[in-house]
Write a structure and sequence with these properties.
This protein has about 140 residues and is mostly helical. It has five helices and no strands.
Length: about 140
Amino acid sequence: MFHQLLGQAFLALMLLVCGWALWRGDKPERLAAAAMVAAWIGTSFVLDRRFKDIQWATLGVDFALLVVLIGLSLVFRRRWLLAASGFHLLGVATHGAMIIDPKVQATPYIVALGVWSCATVASLAVGMAALTRSRAAVR
């Protein structure tokens, strides 16, 4: 039950941050927010909730988001995009750890993926805060 509450809290936070980015962000913030929401939706469709085996489909969704974030960071040169790409790379590496050692238990696997997902979304929030601050300084 507790992990479900945490998952719902993360979803609310992600939707709040991504909604803010879609509403008030510049092009890189909007693209990243749309990609994050699309990845969440994609993951919800392909996730095997038994967590008995490696989450191959989820790895595919996470890898696609990683490619988008790295591509955005190469084009737009925003620091928060570098942080988001780095944190999301750690999430993809967590899948790699499960591939290397399938004996990894489900709970640490789920927690690690959650931590890196929160850090990725937090990077977007930091980017939005910086953008808001820079816009206020111009006025």
